Amino acid sequence: MDRQLSLAQAESFEKYRKATRRSAFLYGMESLVPWKKLCDRVAPFYPAGERGRPPRNLEQMIRIYLLQDWFSLNSREAEEILYENRAMREFARIDLWKEPVPEESTLRNFSRLLKKKKVDGEIIAAVTISLNDRGVKLTRGTIREPSLAKLPSGPKKIKEPSVWDGV
Fold first, then answer.
1. Which of 16, 51, 127, 148 stands 20 to 30 A from 158 (CA)?
2. pLDDT in tens, 79-98
3. Which residues of 11-31 are buried (b: 16+ CB within 10 A; e: fewer)?
4. In the 8-state DSSP scheme, what is residue 55?
């Protein structure tokens, strides 16, 4: 049976909330990352939106790119975690009342663009230098998710007789 959430159960109205290590990390990175410098570096070749869909906000895409790097997320995982995790969504400046999370393909295309223009390493280096200048060292982490996999079908086992077979 599906359950409809009440307004009080919506995330913005939660009574109990704890600042997690992840949210504290993201809050700290907010002021440590040179956002304008990164945007200025990528802006010359980021689509202006003359054709096709309008492009996503550049700073937002850089923020998601950094989340992918820091938490070892591929594009699919990044899209999913941004829907599930409010701290990461707030860091990426995504308001689900106004816009959806960028799709996996959009995130993948942005990563490819940075690699093609050879600025992917520059972005990470600029963040690392900015952190080092402030006496901070970054250690990358991961988010582990359990998954289900279908077991390979092998030869059928012969059932041994049981005391319950004759009952």
1. 148
2. 999 999 999 999 999 999 89
3. eeeeeeeeeeebbebbeebee
4. P
